[in-house]
Amino acid sequence: MERLDLMAKMKQENVARIIDFLQENKNRQGEVSLTDVMHLAEVMSGSMFDFLSTVQPAVTEELTAIARQITRMKEEISQLRANDMTTSKIPDAGRELDAIVEATENATNTIMETAEEIMGADTSDPVAYQELVSNKMINIFEACTFQDITGQRISKVVETLRFIDERVSSFISQLRIPEDLEAAMEESADERRKRELILHGPQHTGEGVSQDDIDALLGDAQSDIDKLFD
Amino acid sequence: MALDLQMPVLVVDDYKTMIRIIRNLLKQLGFEDIDDAADGTEALEKMKQRRYGLVISDWNMEPMTGYELLKQVRSDSGLSKTPFIMVTAESKTENVIAAKKAGVNNYIVKPFNAQTLKGKIEAVFSD
């Protein structure tokens, strides 16, 4: 407010000087010399100098603040290590997940093949059958070792997710984006399909309904099911 | 409708291991004629070519889900009476109610055991 008052006062002073100059030259009936023009220029530039000297510190202060903010944002962006994420961490996490899928699939196949061999084995010779079952059980135990390796791989993926979460959270915090400023997400085709076809995927323990609950729901009369919508 | 172990059963799942598990469980229960499909579209084509005594289907498949398959089956006069059991990880009340409304005969939530599968199949054919 003080700054505005000062600027207004300065403007008045400058305008007064220009008016005085014009008043002095009024009686010359349009005969204006080069000296007059230069004097007018001097008065005008003086008034501009006054204006700029008043405004410049404020502008400089604002520009410095913006420059500081830009520098800080650049630091935050570099902290994000976006290149590291896209070229290394995320692809690595993808490879770990692929390896997990492959390991569990191989283990499942081994266990199922072994179980199928046991189920289809000849039981007429109890001694031979017992030996076969014992050997096949060892195969099943061996196949179950996948759990240790997949556990370690999952830990690496979790670590990557935590890395991304920490950096993105810090970045968002630095941006100081108000919660109500977040843009509304437009529903994608995949999201619409999931909503329309009721695709929620597996639920965590305690979140979905149990088999007993389902049996109760299916056993109930339709009117009872309809009550759930009320 | 009586339970006939000779009837052809169609198992629909996009996960080969699950098909293998259900196939083995059905064999243990005495079923011999077991066919499979990887999604609703393939299942529907097979159902139009052959009369199955029972369909056991997953829910979450692409391009056609088990839920869409169920609705298609129930809206087709030639297939509408086919017993249909949903075997799925979709365990929200909303899913069960939607399946019930669409005409499912029974609903099994994954993971399940042989006893549950046996019990639900028997329940479908004892109604």
TrEMBL record, chain B:
Question: Which residues are modified to 4-aspartylphosphate?
Answer: D58
Concerning SUPFAM superfamilies, the annotation shows: CheY-like
Single biological process term from Gene Ontology: phosphorelay signal transduction system
InterPro entries from the UniProt entry: CheY-like_superfamily, Sig_transdc_resp-reg_receiver, ST_Response_Regulator
Please provide the record's keywords in A-Z order: Phosphoprotein
Query: Where do the Response regulatory domain residues begin and end?
Result: 8-125
Identification of the protein by name? Two-component system chemotaxis response regulator CheY
